[in-house]
Amino acid sequence: MAGMRLTGMMSGMDTESIIQQLVSAKKTKVDTTKKAQTKLSWKQDAWKDLNTKLQNLQKKYLSNMRFATDYAKKTTKVSNSNKVSVITGEGAVNGVQSLRIESLAKSGYMTGGELKGKAGELTALSKISDIQGVADDINGNISITTKSGKVDIAINGETTISDVLTQLKSAGVNANFDAKQQRLYVVSKEMGEANDFTITGDDAALSALGLSSSQATKVDGQDAVIYLNNARYTSTNNTFDINGLTFTALDVTTGTEEITVTTQNDTDGIYDMLKNFLKEYNSIINEMDKLYNADSAKGYEPLTSEEKEAMSESDIKEWETKVKDSLLRRDENLSSVSSALKAVMSSGIEVNGKTMYLSSFGINTLSYFEAADNERNAYHIDGDPDDASTSGNTDKLKSMIASDPDTVISFFTQLSKNMYDKMSELSKSVDGYRTYGNFYDDKKMKSDYDDYTSKISDLEKKLADYEDKWYAKFSAMETALAKMQQNASAVTSLLGG
Predict the structure, then answer these.
(1) Same domain as 118, residue 158
(2) Domains held by the chain: number
(3) Arithmetic mean of pLDDT, 231-252
(4) Beta partners for residue 176, in sequence order
C-alpha cells in the first residue's frame, strides 16, 4: 500500500470520495463473496441440526426396534401389593400364579441387659470393672460363633467396653453400646439363618456385659420362606429370583390367603414405544417439509457490517431470520432424504402372507384439509388420548397389541429394519462429499467454505492494490499541481509581481 495518501489540498477535489466510488465495484465483489460464505455457514448449521435429529431417530429408535426382543415387554400385577412387590424380567413367562409368604428373613439380634456403673453412667470407654456388680479382678472369656467360625474374647477388669465391641466386630457382627439405654447390642451383618450368631462364655463374663441368657434377649436369624404354586423357596434377604420374576416379600400371608401373581404382555409399554417413535418421526418430517416449502427470500442476503450499522437490532434479527428460514428451500438433498423416509413409511409389509400397512393398525395421516400446513405427512394413532385429531376414534393399535402381539411385532420390526437400512444407505460415505453417518454433504460444504476464504483473501488483496493505485495517481496529480504553483509563484516574483 502507498505510504502517504495526499487528499485534494491543491486540486480542491474530494479525492477520498472519488476513489471510493472508483473502487466500489470491486468492493461489491468482496461483499458478495462474504455474503455467500456466510450463507453457506448458516446452511451448514441448519443441516447439522437436522442431521443430529435424523441420527437420533436411527440410533435411539430404529436401531432397537428392528429386533423383536425390543418388543418383549411384560408386566406383572399382584393382588396384594402390601405383601409382595414383583419386578418383571426379560425371561418372564405369561401366566397366573399363586403365592404364599410363610416367613420374612430376619437378622440375628441380641439386646443386652441394662448395665449400671459404679460411679455413674457408663460409656464405651468405661472398664469392665466400672460396671456395678463386677469384681475388680474379674478374669474370664466370652465366645462368639458365626458362619466364619468361633472367636474367643478375653475379659478382665482393665478391658473396656470399646475393646469388646472391636473384637465382636472383627468376628463378623455389628456391635454397639447405647450410652442412653446403657445396653450392648449385637446384630448379624446379614439376614438369614446361615448368617446368625451365638454368644457363649463364662457366666461371670457374660453377666458383666449383660449378655447372659437371663439378661439378654436374642432373636434368631431366619430365612424368608415362600410357596409359589405350592413349591417351597427360601431366601436370606426376602428377595427371590424365580423364572424371570424378582419377588420381594414384604409381609407374611395369614390363614388360607393366597396372592395372585399375573404376568402378561405389557400392552402399554409396546404402545408407548411405538407412539414415541411416531412422535419423533413426525417432528422430523414436519420440520423437513417446513424447510423445503419455506417462503422465498429473494432479495434478502446476509448483511455486511456497514449495512447492520444502519439498522435496528430487531430489524437485523428479522432480516437474518428470513434468510435462514429459506436456506433449505427446494434443497435437492433434503428432498431425497424426506422422500425416502416417506416412501418407507407408506410401503406395504408382508406379515403371514398378508400385505399390511400402517393403516392396518389404525395409524394414518390426516386428510389434506384436516392437516396443518407442512404437517400432512405426519402419522396419527386412532384413539390416542393426546391427539385431538384422532382421540375420538377406536384405538385399533392397542387392541391389536393385546390380542395379536406377534403380528404387531412382525410388522414393526420389518418397518424399522427397512427404514434403518434406508437411512444407512442415505448416510453412507461419499469421497469428497460426505462423511459416513451424515445425511448431507458435510465434506463438500467445508471445502466450499474454505474456497470462499481463499477467494475473499484474493479479492481483498486486489481491492487494496486497486485502491492504492488510485491513491497513487491522485497523489501524483496533487504533487504536480503543487510544483506548478511553486513555479508560477517564482515567475511572478521575478517579474516583480
Answers:
(1) yes
(2) 3
(3) 97
(4) 185
Task: Please check whether residues 429 and 371 belong to one and the same domain.
Answer: yes
Same domain, 49 and 131: no
The pTM (predicted TM-score) of the whole model is 0.70
Whether 48 is covered by a domain: the verdict is yes
Q: Is 160:188 a contact under the CB 8 Å cutoff?
A: no
Give residue 399's pLDDT.
Answer: 94
The residue whose grid cell reads 394414518 is 364
Q: Dump pLDDT digits (tens) for 268-305.
A: 999 999 999 999 999 999 999 999 999 999 999 999 98
Q: Is the pLDDT of residue 493 over 80?
A: no
pLDDT of residue 90: 79
pLDDT in tens, 477-486: 767 766 776 7
Flag whether 315 is in a domain. no
Based on the fold, state whether residues 260 and 338 are members of the same structural domain: no
Domain around 34: 17-70+268-293+329-442
Spatial distance between the Cα atoms of 147 and 134, rounded to a whole number of angstroms: 31
| Residue 494 placed within a domain | no
Beta strands in 104-255 (DSSP E): 109-111, 139-146, 149-156, 173-178, 183-188, 198-201, 217-219, 224-228, 231-235, 239-242, 245-249
**Residues 170/164, Cβ–Cβ less than 8 Å:** no
Q: Is 456 part of any domain? A: no
In DSSP notation, 291-355 reads: HHTPPP-TT--PPPHHHHHTS-HHHHHHHHHHHHHTTTTT-HHHHHHHHHHHHHHHS-EEETTEE
Asked whether residue 341 falls in the same domain as residue 434, the answer is yes
Statement to judge: residues 421 and 284 lie in one domain = yes
State pLDDT tens for residues 365-380: 999 999 999 999 999 9
